[in-house]
Write the structure tokens for this entry.
Amino acid sequence: MASFDNLLYDLDAATGVLTLTVNRPAKLNALNAATIAELDAAGQEALADPAVRAILLTGSGEKAFVAGADIAELAALTPVQAAGASAYGQRVFAQFERSPKPVVAAVNGFALGGGCELAMACHLRVAADTARFGLPEVSLGLLPGYGGTQRLPQLVGKAKALELMLTADMIKADEALRLGLANHVVPAAELLDFCRQLLAKMLSKGPVALGLVIGSVNAGYAPGQDGYAAEAEAFGHAFQTDDFKEGTQAFVAKRPPVFQGK
């Protein structure tokens, strides 16, 4: 396993849930270039490791999930470097979005700018009741650069997404839930336990099928792809799997299935 300076990488061998924690509490877990590179490496490692069945992504401390990008570092970039940094961050975050293993964000505090973008790249977002969301980049004369202008409209609709980005408004967890930006809001003390229970429910299902669902949904939002065609192809693929045979046999026998992820 790779070693990380700005991330905590904690795999529960019994459940297969990897808890990946952005660990820069003194900087409110702000994303600098080194942290984004570590998220890239950690994501690649998690996706390649068969022992990792799901990813729980959170931030260190009680104040912030990720409170944005490292502004001082950004301010030193040239326009060409900034465009490159944006494209790289988009690729890193897309790695989590495209993961065939479920990825849940446990939003334990401020999820602003790049932090909100990172949370949106996860498949689900569970927010502590103390969490706050926002894309305030226009306050700095910038715009979201890690996929926020694309993912926020998908989650809350174009008009509301534009309002949030153009006003730089920060919203509370209950408003994020109402808009569809958060899937659940729970007391802060219960956040990680709730997320682990949610992942346990998912991981009791067919692992191959979980990945096929994620891939089919993503295909519907990808330029140039036909989501319906992707679904049909995935549906046919599922029929070739041992998990499908086990699931149907268990259903007929009225017993819990024992999936092997094959």
Observations:
- Strands lie at 7-12, 17-22, 54-59, 64-66, 103-107, 110-112, 124-128, 132-134, 170-172, 184-186.
- The chain has two domains: 7-203, 205-253.
- The first strand starts at residue 7 and ends at 12.
- The chain has a mean pLDDT of 95.
